[in-house]
Each structure stands twice: as structure tokens, then as C-alpha cells.
Amino acid sequence: QVQLVESGGGLVQAGGSLRLSCVASESFPSFDHIGWYRQIPGNEREPVAVIVRNRSSTYTNAMRGRVTISRDNAKDILYLDMDQLRPEDTGVYYCWTYDGQNRWGPGTQVTVSS
């Protein structure tokens, strides 16, 4: 089964930016469904932004206008650019794909200080 690994999380001040990256054990271009989810403490895991059949969508209203999802097919990397981060964005961010089952990476911690 495909393995996903995220990187790029860390501690950032409110208003700052982060770029998350995800690499997969298989080539991303073969995936129709890829994206990013997050889990805020006390909340269920929720989709942040996904690409389905090369069309990107942002799912969480809380981050709409502040995130951009993109993929570099040549390098097989999926990105999530996050701007104007807020303390309430603090949580674990997961790379996701679907190949008949939901697949997740181990997650990367994003902490936004006020």
C-alpha cells in the first residue's frame, strides 16, 4: 500500500506562513484523489484542501482564501501553502490519498502562537 510522509510543520507566529510537503512511496500522478486534512485538538479530522481528478477544492471554510494546494508531478510532491495563520489553526496536518481505502501519513504538527 502507498506510504505518505509529511514535512514542513513547525512553530510560527500568528500571521505567518508555512509550506507543508508530502511525498509518497508511489508516483502522485497516478492518484486521482490527494489532499490535506487536519485535526485540531478536540475536533474530528477534517479536510482542508483536496485535488480530485486534477481539480482542487478547499473544504474548510476556516481556511478558505488562506491555503493553496498544489502538486509537482515532476518531483512527486504535494504541497499545502498556508498564509495568515491563526492560533486556531494549530493542529496536526495529514497528507491523504484514496486508493480504495483512505491512506494517511503520520502527520506534521503545526503550532501557531498568538
Please state the average pLDDT score: 92
Task: Work out the strand percent.
Answer: over 45%
Contiguous helical run count? 0
* Order of helix and strand elements from N to C terminus: EEEEEEEEEEE
Helix-and-strand structural type: mainly beta
Describe this structure in words.
The protein has 114 residues and is an all-beta fold. The chain has no helices and 11 strands. The protein has strands at 4-7, 10-13, 18-24, 33-39, 46-52, 55-58, 67-72, 77-82, 91-98, 102-104, 108-113.
Index terms:
114 residues, mainly beta, 54% strand, four-stranded antiparallel sheet, seven-stranded mixed sheet, 11 strands, single chain
Helices and strands, with pairings:
Layout: E1 4-7, E2 10-13, E3 18-24, E4 33-39, E5 46-52, E6 55-58, E7 67-72, E8 77-82, E9 91-98, E10 102-104, E11 108-113
Parallel strand pairs: 2-11
Antiparallel strand pairs: 1-3, 3-8, 4-5, 4-9, 5-6, 7-8, 9-10, 9-11
Summarize the structure.
By secondary structure, the chain is mainly beta. The chain has no helices and 11 strands. The protein starts with a strand and ends with a strand.
